[in-house]
Specification:
By secondary structure, this protein is α+β, with helices and mostly antiparallel strands. It has two helices and ten strands. It has a three-stranded antiparallel beta sheet with strand order 1-8-7, with no helix packed on it. It has a three-stranded antiparallel beta sheet with strand order 6-9-10, with no helix packed on it. Strands 2-5 form a two-stranded antiparallel sheet. Strand 9 and strand 10 form a beta hairpin.
């Protein structure tokens, strides 16, 4: 304090000494700028909860598979499964099915496969032919009726399994939050909430746009699959109707042929009956004529015998009469 007082006294004395030599202008005092306000540190908003990520579907497994397998053992009935949630947009659900291992049937659980533009998933089929079963494996049918039996196939435990896929994180990236310390110039810089919020809103909008685009593609693919399914159903119904009409026509032709054969057989029987009747009538007439002839011959024989008997009787009467006359004559002669 003493130093400060001495310094002020010396300055005052020097001012008086100078004022005696020249006229000093009035000092101009300039209001200094107020000090900058103390920086306000805003506590950043807590980060949103981390979404639950699911492992990406396995990459395409390149197995050498036979499109068709002939088996003598019938597949078991299908297993009832609950469809899980898709890992994200742009996936197609593949129903579970029985697969042939080479010695037995093995159940492949249903799974979500990444959609493949221009391709349609075809479920396996089991066709019973005689005493055996023909197993048609699943495939993806693409342009030009190209069949891909290896795309997005599930892992089969009886074949070498591929290495496990890495987990891919999908969704909004977590924003970086930081608070800087004093700068070289001595000023403090805090978190800019407006920039952080804008960045977060931008990321959310981009994510929504991607989700909307994926949903749009999925809807278009679904509509395309439904249209193709309707076309296949209509084609199958058309083929079934044509087959039914063909069978009905063949049945009518067989019925007409059977009716014609029955009529021909009936006409043949009627003709045979008429011939038999005519034969019987002819035989009856012949027999009647024979009987009539025999009766006439018998009657003629009887008449002849009667005439002979009558002639014999007349001869006997004549002889008797002649004898009597002779006897009477002899008696007269005596």
């Amino acid at each position: 304090m003493k130093r400060v007082a001495k310094l002020l006294f010396a300055l005052l004395m020097g001012g008086f000494a100078l004022s005696s030599c020249f006229v000093r202008p009035a000092p101009v005092y300039v209001q200094s700028a107020p000090p900058p306000p103390a920086p306000v540190y805003v506590q950043p908003a807590p980060p949103p909860p981390e979404p639950t990520y699911q492992a990406a579907p396995p990459p395409p497994v390149q197995y050498e598979v036979e499109p068709q397998v002939v088996i003598e053992v019938a597949p078991p009935p299908p297993t009832v499964e609950v469809r899980s949630r898709p890992p994200g947009p742009g996936y197609v659900w593949c129903e579970g099915y029985w697969d042939w291992t080479g010695s037995q049937w093995y159940w492949i659980r249903g799974y979500w496969a990444p959609n493949r533009p221009g391709y349609v998933y075809v479920h396996p089929r089991y066709v019973h032919e005689g005493n055996r079963w023909v197993y048609h494996r699943s495939y993806w049918n693409g342009p030009g009726n190209h069949r891909d039996y290896n795309y997005a196939q599930p892992e089969r435990p009886w074949r070498p399994a591929p290495p496990p896929p890495a987990v891919q994180r999908q969704g909004q990236p977590e924003p970086a939050h930081s608070v800087s310390g004093p700068s070289a110039g001595g000023a403090n810089r805090g978190v800019n909430p407006a920039a952080e919020r804008a960045e977060r809103e931008k990321a959310e909008k981009a994510e929504k746009a991607r989700a909307a685009e994926a949903e749009k593609v999925e809807k278009a693919e679904k509509a395309k699959n439904e249209k193709a399914e309707k076309a296949r159903a209509a084609e199958a119904e058309k083929a079934e109707k044509a087959e039914k009409a063909k069978n009905e026509k063949a049945e009518k032709a067989r019925a007409a042929e059977a009716e014609k054969a029955e009529k021909a057989k009936a006409a043949e029987r009627e003709k045979a009956e008429k011939a038999e009747k005519a034969k019987n009538e002819k035989a009856e007439k012949t027999a009647a004529a024979e009987r009539e002839k025999a009766e006439k011959a018998k009657a003629a024989e009887a008449e002849k015998a009667a005439k002979a008997e009558k002639a014999k009787a007349a001869e006997a009467e004549k002889n008797a009469k002649a004898k009597n006359e002779k006897a009477k004559k002899t008696g007269k002669d005596k």
